Amino acid sequence: MAKIAVVFWSGTGNTEKMAECILEGLKAGGAEAELFNVADFSADKMGDYDKIAFGCPAMGAEELEPDEFEPFFASVEGDLMGRPVALFGSYEWADGEWMDLWVERTKAAGADLFETGLMIYDHPDEEGQAKCKAFGERFAK
Ligand SMILES: Cc1cc2nc3c(=O)[nH]c(=O)nc-3n(C[C@H](O)[C@H](O)[C@H](O)COP(=O)(O)O)c2cc1C
């Protein structure tokens, strides 16, 4: 059984809802999965998991959230080589460039990126929640 961490930052709850639905999907897919607010996770926990899903909305100007998530991601970037990683997050103002940049950065770090990043506009509605759950189920396999 794969052990998977879902590590997210969310300001207004949209990415948090995505994270909860992905967690549900991971469990439905047979993984042992745990949810962490990024403030409660650190680089030294990376080795405890077979796969990691990172969640962060578009912030700044098509950037990761600068105060907590960006420094955290920079701290684990050197440890992504060969690791199965999934990316997800919510956006609202533009067309998802932050995810393209994040995907490129994650690939450049050598991660084994799962599909492409999952983006949901604003708060995930029922259809968005189902997409998140299905994403989690596929990542669990
Ligand atoms: C400071 C700030 C910067 C943002 N920058 C962007 C951006 O560059 N591109 C974008 O599409 N949305 C941007 N947004 C919108 C958020 O990505 C969107 O509201 C998202 O749903 C928030 O997710 P959360 O509820 O998980 O915090 C920004 C929002 C804030 C508050």
Characterise this structure.
The chain is an alpha/beta fold and 141 residues long. Helices cover 35% and strands 22% of the residues. The chain contains four helices and six strands. Strands 1, 2, 3, 4, 5 and 6 form a six-stranded parallel sheet that branches. Helix 2 links the parallel strand 3 and strand 4. Helix 1 crosses helix 4. The radius of gyration is 13 Å and the shape is globular. The N and C termini lie close together (9 Å). Flavin mononucleotide binds next to helix 1 and strand 4.
List keywords for this structure.
binds flavin mononucleotide; 141 residues; 6-stranded parallel beta sheet
Shape: globular
Kindly, what is the distance between the CA atoms of the first and last residues, rounded to a whole number of angstroms?
9 Å
Treating each run of at least 4 consecutive H or I residues as one helix, how many helices?
4
Count of extended strands:
6
Strand pairing plus helix content: what structural class? alpha/beta
β-strand percent reads 15-25%
Rg from C-alpha positions? 13 Å
Bound molecules: flavin mononucleotide
Element-by-element helix/strand order: EHEEHEHEEH
Helix content: 25-40%
The average pLDDT is: 97
Summarize the biggest pleated sheet. Answer: 6 strands, parallel
Low-confidence runs: none
